Amino acid sequence: MCGTSGAEEGTPNEQRGPRDEQAQFSALLEDSAEDLYEHAPCGYLSTLLDGRIAKVNATLLDWLGYAHDDLVGRRHFSDLLTVGGRLYHETHYAPLLMMQGEVSGIALELKAADGSRLPVLVTSTVKTGSDGQPLLIRTTLFDARERRAYETELLRARKDADLERDRLMRLNATLQKTLLPPTLANVPGLDVAAYYHIASVDEVGGDFYDLFPLADGTWGLFLGDVCGKGAAAAALTSLARYTLRAAAVYDPDPAAVLANLNTVLNHEYNGDDPRFCTVVFGLLTPDTDRDGFHITLASGGHPPALLMRADGTADHLPTPGGQLIGVLPDAHIATTTVRLAPGDTLLLHTDGLTEAHTATGEDRYGDEALLDFCRALAPTTASDTTDAVRGLLDTFGTGVDDDTALLAVHVPHPTSQEPQ
Questions:
Q1: Which of 58, 72, 143, 308 has its CA 20 to 30 A from that of 197?
Q2: What is the pLDDT of residues 326-384, one digit of tens each?
Q3: Can you spell out the DSSP letters for 264-309?
Q4: What DSSP state is assigned to residue 91?
Q5: Which among 82, 47, 46, 44 is positioned nearest to 62, based on CA atoms?
Q6: Which helix (H) or strand (E) holds 387?
Q7: Which of 49, 43, 128, 36 is nearest to 80 (CA)?
Q8: Residues 260 and 242 sit within 8 Å (Cβ to Cβ)
Q9: Rounded Cα gap, residues 35 and 44, in angstroms
Q10: Cα-Cα-Cα-Cα dihedral sign, residues 419, 388, 212, 215
């Protein structure tokens, strides 16, 4: 009985060895140069130096819907371009090509036979003879329809993002305005100036200030800074402002005002997302015996106010030990009382100023540097003080990473003429 060995069993495909597979693969690579040119995944054309088409591959003909004889010897390359593309070709592309011998990756649009447009990326090189003289121009064209669609989509998305950002900026600006008083109360015998520096237009800050009348010829003022930014900070700011005003009407004593605010915030934000703020509240009372005002300041963890005297001196008004408002059920409130004489100016500010990065970007500006700055200003007025600090903030540039609020009050001399 005859049989076959295991090596001889199997189908022809199974019997094909590595040598046959290599031969088949080599055959796939043996396309003719002409076939590679004609059916390349990009368009090819060759033109004379005057731009007349001398050769074009089948790929480009298929893209444009032309026959070979429609173009070769009959049309110039510029005839295939749109009006704008033809103008660019004549004024920029062709002269640059003659100067450099090559132009690469230029975006143009071709006109198809049916009138449609085909976006392409064009690269051209000048072929020279053995004597270095130019003979013809070889051009490669890549279909850029998908790229154009992608770029269009990117531009649309960017436009939508810009519109959304503009809308958000307008919303933030409007919301920010609602958190600040439209005007400050007019206090007889007192000049007042305020300024708000926005560190970022993308988010609503949490700084706030106000000056308003109370009973019996007194006025209340406050300036504060809530933790965080955005909608949550705006809600806390709104609550703090209206609570301070209401508490001052009920009991204008500055320590009592901040104690009321502390109770409200501690009760409202005592869960998993605690919120707090730093605040300084002042009660202004005219000095009936002499020109000027008495002011009692209560501070809940806020940076100290600065007093610039008419004699050219300046110093902090210390309120040590004042605790953050809203953290503890019974926060310690620090108070101090001082007389504002004619020529004196009091400056309240939030910590966005003293925590700004200096030009080196490494150090914070700090309380002592601000004190030196105010000593150089004294004696000064309310508006001159806010203008000077505004200029100081501008020198920090992007180093100011938190909003800054300023509130300055100044007692003018009885003659309304400040000393020069």
A1: 308
A2: 888 899 999 999 999 999 999 999 998 998 888 765 688 899 999 999 999 999 999 99
A3: HHHHHT-SSS---EEEEEEEEEE-SSSSSEEEEEEEESPPPEEEE-
A4: I
A5: 44
A6: helix 382-396
A7: 43
A8: no
A9: 12
A10: negative
pTM, full prediction: 0.61
Model confidence at 244: pLDDT above 90:
yes
Q: Each residue of 30-74: pLDDT tens digit?
A: 667 788 888 889 999 999 999 999 999 999 999 999 999 999 999
pLDDT at 2 (0 to 100): 45
pLDDT in tens, 161-176: 777 666 666 665 655 5
* Cis bond upstream, residue 188 (ω within 30): no
- Phi then psi for residue 176, to 5 deg, are -60, -40
Residue 4 has pLDDT above 50, yes or no: no
How far apart, in Å, are the Cα atoms of 26 and each of 23, 34, 365? 5, 18, 74
C-beta atoms surrounding 86 within 10 Å: 18
* Token pair recorded at residue 243: 């609570």
User: Is 299:347 a contact under the CB 8 Å cutoff?
Assistant: no
- The residue whose two tokens read 């505004």 is 390
Which of 267, 259, 335 has the alpha carbon at shortest distance from 296?
335
Beta-carbon contacts of residue 403 (< 8 Å; ≥ 6 apart): 196, 197, 198, 199, 205, 206, 207, 225, 350, 352
Residues in a beta bridge with 210: 222
Q: Give burial (CB, 10 Å; 0-12/13-18/19+) of 344.
A: buried
- Alpha-carbon distance 371 to 378, whole Å? 11
**Starting at the edge strand that comes first in sequence, how are the strands of the sheet with 43-47 ordered?**
53-56, 43-47, 134-143, 117-128, 102-111
